[in-house]
Write a structure and sequence with these properties.
It is a single chain. This protein is α/β, with parallel strands linked by helices and 395 residues long. The protein has 15 helices and ten strands. 41% of the residues lie in helices and 13% in strands. It starts with 9 loop residues before the first helix and ends in a 6-residue tail after the last helix.
Length: 395
Amino acid sequence: MSTNSLPLTRHSISAARTTLHPPHIHLTPVLTSTTLSALASSPRGSGTAGERPAQPTLRLWFKCENLQRGGSFKIRGAVYALGRLLEGEGREGIEGAEEERKDGWVKEKGVVTHSSGNHAQALALAARDQNLPAHIIMPSIATPQKIAAAKAYGARVYLSGSTYSEREALTRQVISTTGARLISSCDHPDIILGQGTMGLEMQEQVSALMNSLNPYGCDFGFGENDLGKGGLDGIITPCGGGGMLSGVALSTEGTGVRVFGAEPSFQGADDGRRGFYAGERVKQVETMTVAEGLRVPVGWWPWGVIHGRGLVRGMYSVGEEEILAATRLVWERMKLVVEPSACVGLAVVLFDDEFRALVEREAGEDGWDLGIVLSGGNIGGEAVSQILSDESARL
């Protein structure tokens, strides 16, 4: 990808935002839920080590990237990174190809990536907008709907084995044979800056809703102090490769807004959390968590923001049943179609004793206005039926 990226700063995200407009991306809404805010503010379970269960006061604000073009936040990074790549074409080398660089290379050879689904669709869509080829490597176990969508957007789809390493290996083969340029799903500054535009939007939208005379949908059921202090206290996002988490963290730099990451714990999918507290990035993940969009390790570039620069306050993880319960709640209470990966942050807020205790301790009676990113809604009807019929996917 391009070597002329802007520095990883909040200012650079603002600059990236000026290039992302409809019809290439949508301005997605921020919604609230009285029911989910009340659930998050109620004590759950028996606490830890004999202590009473935490009872934080939380007002939840949901950034609905499930309504984004392509069904997820990923279109932001894909559109911005591809635009930068085309802008810088002819000024830097060609990753994965031995032939001399030339103008028009990307238009002719196209782009390539590997993804479990959402980045695959996003890059296919961004490439179609620019009328250039897209080569997409997806695991054979990816949901049929995501594979079909990538093909419908005009991409050539290659199916790999189920693991991250198998996807990487096939990607290298495709680069070698096609000369296509790699656009990573998370591990590049341009991807991070593109994803970070969501964080800026969310902060501005919540502040505007709080400052409105009669803000629609902002009754949390807590009385006079429903609308908090004029802005977000924190944001929690799902974390897979870390592009979104690191971008959102950069978007809050210098604002005082705390940023947290959320991961599945199943089969070691919480590589970000483990690495965060051990002080060393975990480079390999092999997991079959239900949160299929998070089956990847945190990338090198995101890690530098998340841990190296200390812009993420903490990392938390939750189990499969908790993720499914949170997903079902969003379906039933908010009437939104979301995939399990999108609901890992909400699951942490509802079920993680450590996170809930931290909010109670630091926020006190005033509570927190907490932003939750619903990162995507690419899920098929069959998967929805399975989750709805699963009795364990309930509070």
